[in-house]
């Protein structure tokens, strides 16, 4: 927390003065989640790209939910239409793909 400045420091300063230390003070991943909760994602485009690359439709998933999530993430990235189409098709469940 010694690297915090401005509004981030203002937000977390009461924690520094409190004798009861929250669990996120000793866990970097929890601290990062706390920062994101209070200030948003540091790299929203990068986060959307990572989620898009990790998104895939299993055989048991509903197609509509997959496509809604895909479109939501696709709107956040700056990929071309061909790259989005390839990613979308590659991650569809086999039972939906045209053979």
Question: Would you kindly provide a written description of the structure presented here, covering whatever features stand out?
Answer:
It contains 5 helices and no strands. The protein is elongated and about 60 Å long. 58% of the residues lie in helices and 0% in strands.
How is this fold's topology laid out?
Elements: H1 6-17, H2 28-39, H3 44-54, H4 63-74, H5 81-90
Q: Helical proportion?
A: 55-70%
Tell me about the largest β-sheet. none
Q: Strand tally, please? A: 0
Unreliable stretches, pLDDT < 50, 5 or more residues? none
Strand content: under 5%
The count of helical stretches stands at 5
Shape summary: elongated
Give, in order, the helices and strands.
HHHHH
The secondary structure category is: mainly alpha
What is this structure, in a nutshell?
With about 100 residues, the chain is an all-alpha fold. Helices cover about 60% and strands about 0% of the residues.
Question: What keyword list fits this structure?
Answer:
single chain, 99 residues, mainly alpha, 5 helices, 58% helix, 0% strand, elongated
């Amino acid at each position: 927390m010694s690297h915090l400045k401005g509004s981030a420091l203002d937000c977390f300063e009461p924690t520094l003065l409190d004798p009861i230390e929250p669990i996120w003070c000793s866990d970097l991943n929890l601290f990062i989640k706390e920062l994101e909760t209070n200030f948003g994602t540091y790299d929203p485009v990068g986060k959307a790209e990572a989620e898009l690359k990790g998104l895939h439709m299993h055989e048991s998933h509903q197609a509509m939910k997959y496509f809604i999530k895909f479109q939501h993430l696709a709107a956040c990235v700056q990929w071309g239409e061909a790259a989005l189409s390839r990613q979308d098709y590659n991650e569809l469940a086999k039972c939906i793909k045209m053979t």
